[in-house]
Write a structure and sequence with these properties.
heterodimer, A: D-Maltodextrin-Binding Protein, domain 2, B: D-Maltodextrin-Binding Protein, domain 2, D-Maltodextrin-Binding Protein, domain 2, 2 domains
Chain lengths: 196, 352
């Protein structure tokens, strides 16, 4: 027998795109993936029915407490699940997982080294996703900032009777004098001109 | 002359869970008690005790509102790798209860007057089980909690067996009420506001509160890792004093409206102040936030928690140095010098 490790993975994640991509990646590694996206009322049943070897769950899912309770409460459950950190001495992997927002539970008796690759894949996907989300937030912030600057320019033009270039110059000078960012200066200009 | 010792860290991240007893953290921030102590604090809402524990363990949070048994369980390594944690301050006492669905409670009331004491109610509940024809499902939130211990305690007291007589499941607190309303569960044991809300919505009725069963007990505490405490002694004290001041502030009845308005804000409980107000009025659970005996970590309750962990098979044997262990987690020795009102006043005067 070669070293074939295909495991039953239960993914619990509310983010449809992230769960799809991670499922794909795990399929390619030969694992069987069960997804759990919404109604968590049935998580108890699903774990009991599917008997996953490993559960990968969004760090911020309220269902983590449910999973940890199941492990403690149901002695009749033949395969209680345990928090990954219990079996793992690698502080760095754990810290990376927590930073990426990944938490993992593995069934009692499954060797930790069998699941390391799965956890690494999850960390990679969660991190990439977080990076994308940050980028998106930044772009949104920039767009909003640009809008504020446009509005402040308009008000300045009306108020000072100047042209667009002069209004922009005023804003830029204010920003440099105060050591502030352009959108912040623009916002305070709007505040002042709107109330006068 | 008291001088202000340099704070090792002034910008802090503290975790909380959206329950009524996160109030001391909210007040310490909104009323400016943290600021007075020279601290800038961000409060981070956590969606599970597990995530809160991990973030404190791995240093993503400086400290957090914790279930009273959590620092003890973490220190013992009962819910992950052993991580020494401790608390210098109790945030709240009591406030948890077992609530039954209205349907089940109506049946129970046929056999037992609603006003009867909890022993009579328990006996009637046990007798009712034989005639029910199904095993009621009771939900709880987290295994290292007074809620879970209370439920197990009450069931054991009336010889009600899990698996044979009732079933226990776990669910997040935010889903409890809708599960009860849908009939997916027959009761639950949770903290406020979820018991009062069930009564208010007509979905359930209180069966027994922790205060009735146990008397006053620590419910939520301010928890940090002992490593963090060692590295930030002055910040640790300043943070604790700010939150202790917040607890005292909550104790004054004229602050009630302001408190409920703050708690209702989206970053915290995200509810309407009216709803919280009626819940607060309904509550007969003796949820308390202030008083030196309320906020002082209790060694006695710490030892009681160790026993509950054994009773629930979370711990197989009492640690040899149980007393030393309990006093290393529940830091009564820090509370006493730090939270003398005179000490706090002097420090604040010196800071001005």
């Amino acid at each position: 027998m070669g070293k074939r490790v295909n495991l039953r993975v239960l993914l619990v994640d509310g983010d449809a795109q992230r769960i799809r991509q991670l499922t794909l990646a795990l399929h390619q590694q030969g694992h069987r993936v069960i997804c759990h996206t919404a109604d968590i009322a049935s998580l108890n049943q699903q774990v009991a029915k599917e008997q996953p070897d490993i559960v990968i769950i969004d760090m911020d899912s309220p269902d983590r407490d449910t999973l940890e309770s199941m492990a403690m409460m149901s002695r009749e459950n033949p395969r209680p699940i345990v928090f990954f950190a219990e079996q793992q001495n690698d502080h760095q992997t754990m810290a990376a997982a927590i930073n990426a927002g990944v938490s993992a539970y593995i069934a009692d008796g499954v060797q930790p080294d069998r699941v390391t690759a799965i956890i690494d894949t999850a960390i990679a996907h969660f991190s990439a996703h977080a990076a994308l989300r940050e980028e998106l937030a930044e772009i949104k912030g920039q767009l909003a900032g640009r809008k504020v600057v446009e509005q402040a320019k308009g008000l300045l033009m009306k108020h000072q009777g100047c042209d667009e270039a002069a209004a922009f110059k005023t804003l830029r000078k204010l920003a440099m004098d105060r050591g502030q960012k352009l959108p912040d200066v623009a916002a305070s200009v709007i505040d002042i001109l709107k109330t006068t | 002359m008291v001088t202000i010792d340099a704070l090792e860290k002034t910008e802090l991240q503290l975790g909380f869970v959206a329950l009524a007893d996160c109030a001391p953290l909210v007040v310490a921030r909104e009323q400016g008690f943290f600021r007075q102590q020279g601290l800038q604090v961000v409060l981070s809402k956590e969606s599970s005790w597990a995530s809160l524990r991990d973030k404190v363990s791995y240093g993503l949070l400086d400290g957090a509102q914790m279930l009273a048994p959590l620092p003890l369980a973490a220190t013992l390594g009962l819910n992950g790798k052993p991580q020494k944690m401790e608390t210098p301050l109790v945030l709240s006492q009591n406030g948890i209860a077992i609530t039954l669905s209205s349907a089940l409670q109506r049946r129970l009331n046929m056999a037992c007057e609603p006003g009867e004491d909890q022993h009579a109610q328990g006996k009637a509940f046990k007798a009712m089980l034989a005639e029910l024809g199904y095993r009621p499902i009771i939900a709880t939130v987290y295994p290292f909690s007074n809620h879970y211990y209370l439920l197990r305690f009450w069931l054991a007291q009336h010889q009600i067996e899990i698996g044979r007589d009732v079933e226990l499941i776990a669910a997040p607190p935010g889903k409890m009420l809708s599960l009860l309303q849908r009939g997916d569960i027959d009761g639950y044991c949770v903290g406020e506001p979820w018991n009062s809300l069930a009564v208010q919505e007509g979905a359930g009725e209180l069966l027994v509160s922790s205060y009735t069963l146990w008397g006053a007990h620590m419910e939520k505490v301010l928890g940090v890792t002992s490593e963090w405490a060692r590295r930030h002694p002055n910040t640790y004290r300043a943070m604790t004093q700010a939150i202790y001041q917040a607890c005292q502030w909550i104790g004054l009845p004229e602050h009630r409206d302001t408190l409920l308005n703050w708690l209702a804000l989206p970053p915290y409980l995200d509810a309407s102040p009216q709803q919280l107000r009626s819940v607060a009025l309904l509550s007969t659970l003796e949820q308390r936030f202030s008083g030196r005996e309320v906020n002082r970590p209790s060694l006695q309750h710490g030892e009681f928690l160790l026993q509950q962990m054994m009773r629930c098979q979370q711990l197989s044997a009492l640690p040899a140095d149980a007393q030393a262990l309990v006093s290393s987690v529940y830091r009564e020795d820090l509370f006493t010098p730090w939270c003398e009102p005179a000490v706090i006043d002097q420090r604040l005067r010196a800071a001005q």
